[in-house]
Each structure stands twice: as C-alpha cells, then as structure tokens.
Design a protein that fits this description.
Layout (H helix, E strand, L loop, with lengths): L3 H15 L40 E12 L3 H7 L5 H11 L4 E14 L2 E16 L10 H5 L5 E20 L2 E20 L9 E2 L2 H9 L6 E17 L2 E8 L4 E3 L2 E3 L2 E9 L4 E8 L3 E3 L2 E15 L4 E12 L2 E13 L4 E7 L6 E8 L1
Parallel strand pairs: 5-6
Antiparallel strand pairs: 1-2, 1-18, 2-3, 3-4, 4-5, 5-7, 7-8, 8-11, 9-10, 11-12, 12-14, 13-14, 14-15, 15-16, 16-17, 17-18
Helix pairs in contact: 2-3, 2-5
Length: 364
C-alpha cells in the first residue's frame, strides 16, 4: 500500500499540473476573465494595474462575482462512477484522468476612488476539487476489482482571503505610473475524499455521487496566515493610438503556505483600431507560483474594447493560461453602462454547470 503522506504529495503535484485554478478573480468585472485586461484595466480591481487607478470617475464601487469553472464533463463523470455497470464506471474513471478539476468562486468587494487614490476591501472564497483516479488494471474492469479500488480519491481545498488595499497613480505627458499595497489574511482547508476508504488513512470516505457536493461545500479552514504585497504599474503612449504598459505584482517575495510568491512581470500593447475600438494584447513575461498550488503559472490574453455609444461599452476577449504543464483557454465578455455618475456592469465567462458571472455598480 502506498503511504498516505506520499499519496497526499502525489495528489498535490497532480492537482498543480491539472488545475487551471489561480486566475485573477475578476472583481468589478475588471480583468481578462470577463474579456478585459490587467495592464490596461479599469483601475478598480485590487489585483489590476495601479497605473490605471485614475481611469474611473471618483466614487464608491461595489462588485460581486460568483460561478464555477470546470473541466469538460467533470460533474457528469463523477456521477457516472456510481453506476452499477462496471463498464460505465471504468469509462468514467478513465475519462476523469483528463477532466479532473472543478473550481467554485464567490467574491465581493468595495473600492473607493478619489483624487487618483484608491482604497478598498475585498473577500474571495474558493472551493476546488481534483479527481485522482486509480487506473491500475487490477483495481478496475469488474465489479469485484472496483471494490478494491482504494486509491481513487478527490483532493478538495478551500481558500478564503480578506484583503485591504490602497494605492495611487500619477500621470504626465501620456505616461502614468502607480503603486498599490495589499494587506491580506489567508485561510486554507483541505480534505481527501475517497471512493473507498484507504485503511488507516486520515481521509473521509464519500460515494462519488456526493463527492462533488462534499468538495464544493467544504467549509473548514484549518490554517491561517497573513501576507502583504506591493504592486507597480506603468503605461505610456508611444504614438497616436499606440500605448505600451507593464505591471509587476508581489514585488516583495513571500512564501505563503507551500507557494513561493515571487514577482511576476506582465507587458501589454494597446492599439486604437478606430475612434471607438481598442485592441489589447498582453502576456506574462515570466512564470511564477501563485495560490493555491506551488507550480509556475503564465497567461496571455487578447481583448477588444468597443464603445457602442457615449454610455454603452462592450468588451470581449479570450485568455490562454498555463498552470504547470496543462493549459486552458477561456472566453469572456462584459457589458457596461457608464457615465460620470453611473456605472452598471455585467460580466460573463463561458463555462459548464454554473458559468461565472459578475456584477459591478458605482454608488455616488
């Protein structure tokens, strides 16, 4: 039998390689997940570019995000493992190898802008699962063999972060620079949910028809720690209709749980395609580790910003993100009603089951 500690380490490594989990939460519909940009952001998201803090009118902004991101057919495959037909269970376990992950996100925040300064509070909650099927020929292929499938399990995790942030920006002759300081309190909880209980293991046993609910409803957070981060941003106009920008986040290196948080540089180019349309291309320059798993991550995205009228804006984009050795592509869109006194914004990211959605509003 494989020792439980080794099994847990294996689970962590596989989770890191397969789970595209650590995408920036698109608070205030601000970021690549909903079709936007990080470098040329709206200046509202505490994880966006601080050089863009002066892009939105002064006032108080409220944001809320909720929804799931899943690998293809993940929920259906988990349910199929409860079938009385061994052939169906075998097929489900084999396919779970390539569709193991699910992520549920809920976040809300409040940001205040005044005189090119920003102050805000946000709270993010993540629940995730990664299935690790045992594909040993001796442990599946018949009803009797499946009864001995003691190594198929799901790695469930929960993270909560409460964040206070403040920063400022200054602009002159087409160039803007900004900073943001983040103070964060992180909580972590984990559980291993087994198809069959490993004798002597410190896990919990669930039939797989309920493991999805068990993982996504995990409420325990056993570990707590604090973090602070310094982010910098820069944009400049190279020529008429051409802008260049860059950000660096977590300028101060910090180890958070088992994740080495090192600085990540991101660069972008923005082009005016006409009086009402902007195209933004951006990418991380280096790969770094980020919560929740200790593997390097990198992403690139393209977005199209279209001013439909003086008050209506439509944003459409796609993001390609690599986490470990695995990559995933997602598309998103945002519709804004925006004036000097009003902001109403709805964001949507395509996905299965419960697609991610976001709302944002300005309160004068």
């Amino acid at each position: 039998m494989i020792p439980f500690k080794c099994l847990s380490r294996t689970a962590l490594a596989l989770s890191a390689a397969l789970l595209p989990l650590a995408a920036q939460t698109p608070l205030f519909n601000d970021g690549p997940a909903f079709g936007g940009s990080r470098v040329f952001s709206e200046g509202l998201n505490p994880l966006g570019s601080p050089a863009r803090i002066d892009q939105s009118p002064g006032g108080w902004y409220l944001g809320y995000v909720t929804g799931d991101q899943r690998a293809q057919d993940n929920s259906t495959l988990l349910q199929s493992t409860t079938s009385p037909d061994p052939v169906t269970v075998d097929a489900a376990l084999a396919q779970l190898k390539d569709a193991p992950w699910a992520l549920r996100t809920k976040a809300y925040g409040l940001t205040g802008l005044k005189d090119k300064m920003a102050f805000g509070y946000s709270r993010e909650e993540f629940n995730s699962l990664v299935a690790h099927p045992d594909l040993n020929p001796l442990d599946f292929g018949s009803a009797l063999a499946l009864q001995n499938n003691n190594l198929t399990f799901v790695d469930a995790r929960r993270y909560i972060v409460d964040r206070i942030s403040f920063g400022g920006a200054t602009a002159a002759t087409g160039t803007s620079v900004g900073y943001r300081l983040r103070l964060e309190r992180w909580e972590q909880g984990t559980a291993n949910l087994y198809m069959n209980q490993v004798p002597g293991a410190l896990g919990q046993s669930f039939p797989f028809y309920s493991v999805d609910n068990a993982a996504m409803a995990l409420a325990r957070t056993d570990y707590r720690t604090t973090n602070w981060g310094l982010d910098l941003g820069f944009t400049t106009q190279l020529a008429q209709g051409i802008r260049l920008g860059a950000t660096v986040d977590q300028l101060n290196s910090k180890r958070l749980y088992d994740v080495a948080m090192k600085p990540q540089l991101r660069a972008a180019l923005q082009l005016d395609l006409g009086p009402a349309t902007q195209l933004t291309l951006e990418s991380d320059v280096n790969g770094v580790e980020r919560i929740p798993f200790p593997v390097k991550q990198q992403s690139a995205n393209a977005s199209l910003h279209y001013q439909m009228s003086s008050a209506v804006v439509f944003i459409l984009g796609a993001e390609r993100k690599r986490v470990g050795e695995a990559a995933v592509t997602r598309a998103g869109a945002t519709l804004q009603l925006r004036t000097q006194t009003v902001l109403l914004s709805f964001g949507f990211q395509a996905g299965q089951d419960k697609p991610m959605m976001g709302l944002a509003a300005m309160v004068k």
